[in-house]
Structure formats: C-alpha cells, structure tokens
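Entry:
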Amino acid sequence: MTHLTTVWKYRHFWLSLVRMDLRTRYRRSLLGVGWSLLQPLVMTCVLFVVFQLMRDLDYREYVPHLLSGLVCWNFLVNCGVQGCQCFFLGESYIRQCPLPLAVYPLRTAIGALFHLTMGLVVVTCLCTILRGFPGVPAMLSLLPSLVILFLFGWSLAVLGGSANVFFQDTQHLAEVGFQIGFYLSPIIWTMDMASGKAPHWLLQLNPVVPFLALVRYPLLNGTVPPMGAYCYGLFIALAAATTAAILLGRLQKRLIFYL
C-alpha cells in the first residue's frame, strides 16, 4: 500500500508521460486516435466475411462478439508487448530520479487503457445499433471489470519489462506467445463452436476467458457478469500483481545496473 501511495504521489509525472506518448503517436496524423479504432473494425469485417463463407453466422451475434474480443485482446497485447520496452524508454528518468519502478509500466498500461476505453465506446454503439442498449446496470458493471482488467494489464507490463531487461529476446517471444494465444482464446471463435471438440473445463483454464466474459456479458447480453467471472478474473489479476510486486521489490535498487 505504501508503494502505491508513492506511485500516486508522482501522478503528475506519469500522467505527463502518458500525454506525451499519445501526442507523439498521433502527431500529424490525419485520423489521430481513429487509427487505434480502425484496426479492430477492419479486422472484424475481414474475419466476419471469412467465417461467413465457412458457416452461416448471425451478424448481430457474431460481429459484437468478435469486435469486443479484439478490443480486449489488443489491450493485453499492448500491455504485454509494449511493456517489454517500458524500462528502456524510461532509462533517462530512472538514472536521474529515484522514482518507483512501477511508474514506467504504469505509463504503458494507462496508454493501453485509453485505447481500450475508446474501443469499448465503439463496441457499445455497435451493440446498441444491432442488439439494443445493454442497460444502465450492465454498463455500470463494466467499471469494476475495467479495474480488474487494468490491474492485470499493468502486471503484464511489469513482468514483460522486467524480463526484457535481463533477456532482450523477451519481446520477440511475447509477440509469438500472444499470436498463439490469440487462436487459443475465444476471440474469433465462440464457446459454442468449440463445444464437443474440447472439454469445457479445459477451455475455462485459459486466463483470458474471464476477462472476455466480464466485458461481453454487459455489452452482448445486457446482464451483469456472474460473481464467478469476477472472482476468477480478480484471482488471476491479483496473482499476476503479487508476482509483479515481488519482482519490482527485488529490482528497485538493481535494475539500473542492467539497463
């Protein structure tokens, strides 16, 4: 808790880093933030056309499922892959200021959360057009879901950034791992498609499944996610956060010697 208090104390610093990252990324860009929304929208259209050729799909069911999965997955990929460079990007600050190391992966996670929020706004609009407005209680249930998802993403950035300092092939391995995980997760396919081909309990072991459920239940079904989904997602996020906190505690004074 003391560590989090210290991180909050320097909120003006890491918020300025996030603003700088966003300005740099979209400087002189015609669409600006729209580019972050265009990629999942285009992928959704392409994948829907491909899957529609193989089997008859209801676009009102499949398109929101696919887009919501891509938006959440992009958040995790951005945290995990871009997080591998978080300490190298902050090297000049680390050498000059004894700030908590958690500040630098936090910078990555907040930037990814910004794009996740923009993406969920688009998903909400699409679901409202195709399926009707999910309802206020369902939309409010997204707030704790986003907190849990953000905690997990921040932890991924910490773990990826720490590992990449000592083994700089980590980012390349992460890119391959996320590519494999994309096809093993119910993003472009649904649980119904996989029923009968794999045991349900085996599919539920995928750590991405509860986070997708926390987002899809409110937006696609208009219902508050079951408590089991919250507990499972929170357990995974806390396990990752605990590992990240222990790792940062050991690296706080030694990381600078490896940059």
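Residues 103-131 form the longest helix (29 residues).
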